[in-house]
Design goal:
579 residues; mainly alpha; 79% helix
């Protein structure tokens, strides 16, 4: 039998065809259910058992355990899930991925679904040209579904005809006959490497099913490869966590540890499991998988499900220990590393606009906290008596201002990337709102830093404020702090439930007090109650505080979508040009 370069390229092309179909189908489902996926993850992970069900449900829906695990790592990174909750979701994803194996075994091998693939594309393609995003997403799912099974059919036709050329199995036989320990270990390694290379456990599983169905490898070797694929699939989450924070790395490590432990104990119990499956297959009349290659895909699906279910049942009680082990394996580099940072947001590890925007929403809420910290430090700086302490506070505020600049830049860059994909109208509005929030938070931080500079100027020029000036500024800071509290509360809420009433009331109160301060200031200047230098710095500080409050109000306005259409149109292009 000849199997040249062209045949190898055909085989690889068929595999690529299959992976592309799965990618299109998975993305279509995620776009259809994007908002629901976020709600499911948020509402159904209160404990590890619900987490398992959630992971199973989402993986069954999107047909990709990698998508679920990467999504989970992203949510841990964003602070949406705890390590304990993420462990349950990861376990459920392992069970959910068995749905794909059954899906392929029954429809791909028992039913000739490839024959109806072209009619399915005929139905799906017109939907892609509808104006409504929902119909486009359904069309994308149908086309992906058809391409997946066309790819699987091509994959089956591309593998060498080993039935009529048994000599081609010689290279496999030399590894099969190394003894049960070495042979299993080698094929577990092959399964892991295969999954790492093609970055899809479903595609690796499909290739394994095809090879077994064609008689290329026996049932027990196929089972060993499936175990290896369970290890290989963890690499996707590990890669996604590389650019995440310490919590994301720990979440990925929990997934890896869970799968490695499962494969380790199954390595020794493999003959027992395969014997039970063989008896079950013979009793059900499906055929002996050790004799009949065509019955192997169903048998491997049984094994895949039995293994993952057993592993979850065995280890779900040890989740706290897995979390502790992950913490030890990935120690925090410093105290600050234990806090959530922004650096992760540019990783592009989310797959849908809804989930990407959820991360960005959480990030601007943290951005709001950073800006609020600046205001609190600023008040301390203004009323600090010791000059050295004032200098230290100034340096801290300056550092925070640099952080807020980087935050705004990275959030804007991230949202520009999100905007390059296809967005629903609601996602597009939400994206512009988040970008507007980020811009206003950075502008408020700029105002606070400018006030800090004025306070340092006051120190250098040895200017002293009167008691009235200090009391007026103290009260103005209280009003701004109240406005910041309202803003933070709104940032943490569901944006659809935010009301502007309190924010507007506080802004009106600040404006009213600013006018009162201005009048009193002008009168004091006329009466020579304080020096011109003192008056200039004092006037600059309370005006900057009022301008900061305008940005604080604008954050709440952006949350509710109260941004004019002209402003909306300008936000993204300007951000893109600035970057």
């Amino acid at each position: 039998m000849k199997f040249g370069l062209f045949d190898l390229l055909t085989l690889l092309g068929s595999l690529g065809f299959f992976i592309y179909g799965m990618k299109i189908m998975s993305e279509g489902i995620q776009k259809i259910a994007g908002e629901r996926l976020r709600q499911i993850l948020g509402a159904m992970t209160q404990n590890r058992f619900l987490g398992v069900f959630t992971g199973f449900l989402i993986t069954g829906l999107v047909q990709s355990s990698s998508a679920t695990t990467v999504m989970t790592v992203s949510f841990v990174n964003a602070g949406l899930l705890s390590l304990m909750q993420s462990a349950g979701v990861m376990m459920g994803a392992n069970i959910g991925t068995t749905v794909t194996a059954w899906f392929l075994s029954i429809l791909g091998f028992k039913v000739k679904i490839a024959t109806i693939a072209l009619p399915v594309i005929a139905v799906g393609m017109p939907l892609m040209f509808f104006k409504k995003q929902k119909f486009k997403n359904i069309g994308e799912f149908l086309i992906g579904f058809a391409l997946l099974f066309l790819g699987l059919d091509e994959l089956k036709n591309s593998v060498p005809d080993l039935k009529s050329n048994p000599e081609a199995l010689n290279f496999v036989t030399q590894y099969v006959d190394l003894g049960w320990f070495a042979s299993r270990l080698i094929f577990i390694g092959i399964g892991a490497i295969l999954t790492i290379l093609i970055q899809s456990s479903s595609a690796a599983m499909a290739l394994t099913l095809v090879m077994c169905n064609e008689g290329w490898i026996p049932f027990d070797i196929g089972a060993a490869m499936v175990l290896g694929e369970n290890i290989g699939t963890t690499i996707t989450a590990e890669l996604a966590s590389l650019v995440g924070n310490v919590h994301a790395k720990r979440s990925a490590r929990i997934h890896s540890t869970f799968n490695i432990i499962g494969v380790s104990w199954m390595f020794f119990l493999l003959p027992t499991y395969l014997l039970v499956i063989e008896k079950l297959m013979i009793k059900s009349g499906t055929g002996d998988p050790f004799i009949n290659p065509e019955s192997v895909p169903i048998a491997l699906s049984y094994f895949h499900t039995a293994f993952n279910l057993s592993n979850v049942i065995l280890l779900i009680g040890f989740v706290p220990l897995l979390v502790k082990l992950a913490v030890r394996l990935v120690p925090a580099k410093s105290d600050e590393d234990e806090e959530f940072h922004l650096e992760y947001i540019g990783t592009e590890i989310m797959r849908t606009a809804d989930l990407s925007l959820e991360e960005a929403r959480k990030e601007v809420a943290k951005f709001g906290k950073t800006t609020t910290k600046m205001a609190k430090l600023l008040r301390l700086q203004l009323f600090e008596q010791r000059e050295d302490q004032r200098d230290r506070l100034y340096e801290r505020i300056k550092k925070y201002e640099e952080i807020t600049d980087r935050m705004e830049e990275e959030i804007s860059n991230y949202l520009v990337k999100v905007s390059e994909g296809r967005l629903t109208e609601s996602a597009s509005i939400r994206m512009r709102s988040i970008l507007s929030i980020s811009n206003d938070l950075e502008s408020a931080a700029d105002r606070f830093y400018q006030i800090s500079v004025q306070i340092q100027r006051k120190t250098r020029k040895k200017v002293v404020f009167t008691n009235d000036q200090n009391e007026q500024l103290r009260y103005m800071f209280v009003l701004v702090d109240n406005a910041l509290d309202i803003m933070l509360e709104n940032l943490r809420k569901d944006y659809l439930k935010v009301s502007l009433d309190r924010a507007f009331e506080k802004e009106m109160e600040i404006n009213k007090f600013r006018n009162k301060m201005r009048k009193a200031h002008l009168k004091s200047i006329e009466r020579n109650e304080y020096s011109l230098k003192s008056g200039i710095i004092y006037n600059e500080i309370f005006l900057l505080l009022e301008r900061a409050s305008n940005h604080i109000l604008n954050v709440s306005r952006a949350i509710t979508g109260e941004v004019s259409r002209d402003d909306e149109d300008e936000i993204m292009p300007q951000a893109a040009m600035d970057r």
